[in-house]
Amino acid sequence: MKKESPKPEREVLIDAQRIAGRVGEIGRQIRLDHGDEEIILLAVLKGCFPFVADLARAIDGDIVVDFMQTSSYKDGTTSSGHVQIKRDHDVDITGKHVVVVEDIVDTGITLHSLLGLLSTRSPKSLKTATLLDKPGARTQDVQIDYVGFAIPNVFVVGYGLDYAERYRNLPYVAVLNLPLP
Ligand code: IMP
Ligand code: MG
What we know:
- By secondary structure, this protein is of the alpha/beta class.
- The protein is 21% helix and 31% strand.
- The chain has a 6-stranded mixed beta sheet, sandwiched between helices.
- Helix 3 links the parallel strand 7 and strand 8 (125-133).
- The longest helix is centred in the first third of the chain and has 18 residues, at 16-33.
- The relative contact order is 0.20.
- The site of inosinic acid has 15 residues, from strand 7, helix 3 and strand 10.
- The site of magnesium ion has 3 residues, from loops.
């Protein structure tokens, strides 16, 4: 019997060139949707750091970049549904156009919870951008205004996304084939 070759550890899902092209498109769209008004990009650490760096440079005119960080709530594969703010933003968002920038929306719990909090701070508008969207994993309905790529329900790493803090430096998004337990 022919022996099956093992799956590679990583398989490229979205290469650097496709990411760059799509991020440029989203940046131009965000500017178009906000006229020449100031936009605050509120980036959710840590996974969004390459995305927000590239996105910020794809938006012409006045923008402000600030960061938030939420606690990871996952124990294995289950979610407690409770999201804690580890770092809050510094800039005042009252009366401002805000775009929350995420690396990936999975269950939607993080983004839903953040939007609930931010909407109490009276921004002029509140929109959301994510590099990756896993619509098949959603348990919490959440509106996403700008999606880089919709992907299947697989675990991905690279371009900021990690597995146990590794792989964030990959210039592409790859599916991580974890060995079965
Ligand atoms: P949500 O609250 O379930 O939407 O979780 C979003 C967060 O889970 C992301 O910001 C990531 O930190 C993490 N996450 C979800 N899916 C993946 C993945 O495929 N690779 C790496 N991190 C992921
Ligand atoms: Mg994240």
